[in-house]
């Protein structure tokens, strides 16, 4: 899997890719099949080095975007989906248990604190499924009856 604009991930629905690589890492944990682990590591490297915002958010809104599209995506109203980042945290955790590194935990900390936890309204506990990246933009939080509000 090459990184960036030549990656096979370009244009694929992000949320359908994460379970595959989380599963590959789980198979590696159970069987020791190194190619599965190598695939999960290559996926993590591609996503975190070429498809992540500074806050750890992934893709905008749900497809695996090309790195050259970030300038256009900053104007997207919805912004990255919290579920993508949550799934990357799941993969990062498994990779860390296999081969602990500060780099993995640096990403984990950044994504957890600056995207996943930042998507929660501290006053009401509601959450923002989308996390707009536009400077000065607002978040639309869920309500008890509308859980997936778009910005």
Structure report:
- With 151 residues, the chain is mainly α.
- It has one domain.
- It is 47% helix and 0% strand.
- The protein contains five helices and no strands.
- Helix 2 packs across helix 4.
- The relative contact order is 0.15.
- The mean pLDDT is 82.
Put the structure in a nutshell:
The protein has one domain (4-119). The chain contains five helices and no strands. 47% of the residues lie in helices and 0% in strands.
The value of Rg in angstroms is 16 Å
Helix content: 40-55%
Residue ranges: pLDDT <50 for 5 or more in a row? none
**Termini gap:** 33 Å
Overall structural domain count? 1
How many strand elements? 0
Q: What would the principal axes of the Cα set say about the shape?
A: globular
- The mean pLDDT is 82
Question: Quick one: biggest sheet?
Answer: none
Instruction: Label the structural class.
Output: mainly alpha
Number of helices: 5
User: What share of residues are in beta strands?
Assistant: under 5%
């Amino acid at each position: 899997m090459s990184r960036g604009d030549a990656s096979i991930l370009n244009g694929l629905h992000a949320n359908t890719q994460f379970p595959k690589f989380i599963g590959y890492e789980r198979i590696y944990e159970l069987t020791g099949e190194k190619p599965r682990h190598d695939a999960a590591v290559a996926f993590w490297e591609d996503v975190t080095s070429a498809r992540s915002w500074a806050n750890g958010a992934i893709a905008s809104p749900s497809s695996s975007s090309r790195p050259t599209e970030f300038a256009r995506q900053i104007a997207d109203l919805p912004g990255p989906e919290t579920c993508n980042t949550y799934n990357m945290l799941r993969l990062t955790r498994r990779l860390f248990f296999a081969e602990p590194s500060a780099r993995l935990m640096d990403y984990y900390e950044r994504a957890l604190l600056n995207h996943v936890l930042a998507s929660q309204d501290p006053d009401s506990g509601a959450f923002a499924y989308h996390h707009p990246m536009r400077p000065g933009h607002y978040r639309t939080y869920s309500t008890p009856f509308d859980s997936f509000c778009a910005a």
